[in-house]
Amino acid sequence: MDMQDRDGLTEREFLERYQPGDYERPSVATDMVIFTVTDADEDNYRKLPEKELRMLLIRRGGHPFLGKWALPGGFVRPDETTEQAAARELREETGVDNVYLEQLYTFSDIGRDPRTWVMSCSYMALINSKDVQVKAGDDAAEAAWFKVSFRLLRELKELDEDGYIKKLEYELKLSSEHEELTAVVERTMTVKQSLTSAAYTIVSNDGLAFDHAKIIAYAIERLRGKVNYTDIALHLMPKLFTLTELQQVYEVILDRELLKAAFRRKVADLVKETDHYTENAGHRPSRLYRRNLEVYG
Question: Which residues contact 36 (CB under 8 A, 6 or more apart)?
Fold first, then answer.
């Protein structure tokens, strides 16, 4: 016998009468923070090029925020999950597939989109820049890679009886060949006896659409955190690489120099040496390594 609810309805009867329009529903979008690492311009071929952390932005070709730069993304279709929508957007914007893709956070602040109630399920993707073919989507005027800088400006800690509140203010700079975008984002960490939480607030913003400065800050913090205890940085590397190149990628993500010996101990289990060496590099050949798939695979 089918169970009945307090109104005497079976589940089938309840679903037949259910009116989804009785409840206001949000639109759901995916926004993509797509990171890559590129070589900086270097005139001296004998010197190993410096690395730069970059992310993909699109200039909006329509309202709202016409002409502003935004993260690649779009609305989730009725026949796909948010992850499938993110993978589709990534493929449409860059031409790459089957790369590292991780859900970041669901941003649902009231008024984050002036059109209507829109929740964003954001994702982070890591790709090798040599595999990318960037093209602007239907609603974009152009697409471009921006060099990323995210540095701490000031820190404030307030103590109380139950714990503390720490406020960290960061300056976000995104630079392309022709333009620089800036924002200041504050991260508030609340630590109590029974509560630990973090919230991001945009203090100032020049050039970025929606609340995308907040999403970018969240992604950079996630990337930096996971670099310290996973092999996530290996997803930014080509199939074969030198340990010096890998160290450069770690340093550009963390925005600090690392001691060579300590770094090599840290990544020893994450990589496997090969029988290949660099060629035509203008200096002594270096052994090439590859990702050790057995560690986190």
Answer: 53, 54, 55, 56, 126, 127, 128, 129, 132, 145, 236
By C-alpha distance, which of 153, 135, 46, 130 is closest to 90? 135
What pLDDT, on a 0 to 100 scale, did the predictor assign at position 136? Answer: 57
For 18, which DSSP code? -
From the candidates 11, 50, 142, 273, which is the catalytic residue?
A: 142
Q: How is residue 231 annotated by DSSP? A: S
Walking along the chain (297 residues) 10 residues at a time, the average pLDDT comes out as 89 93 93 93 65 94 94 95 94 85 96 96 91 62 90 94 94 95 97 90 97 98 95 95 96 96 96 89 82 77
285: its two tokens: 């050949």
Nearest to 201 by CA among 168, 173, 179: 168
Q: What are the structural domains of the chain? A: 27-227 (3.90.79.10), 232-296 (1.10.10.10)
Closest of 273, 251, 272, 226 to residue 100, by C-alpha: 226
CA–CA separation, 206 and 68 (whole Å): 9
CA distance 43 to 140: 34
- In sequence order, which residues have a C-beta less than 8 Å from that of residue 282 and are 6 or more positions away? 45, 46, 47
Whether 251 is catalytic: no
**Contact predicate 59/142, CB 8 Å:** yes
Q: Which residues contact 117 (CB under 8 A, 6 or more apart)?
A: 24, 26, 27, 110
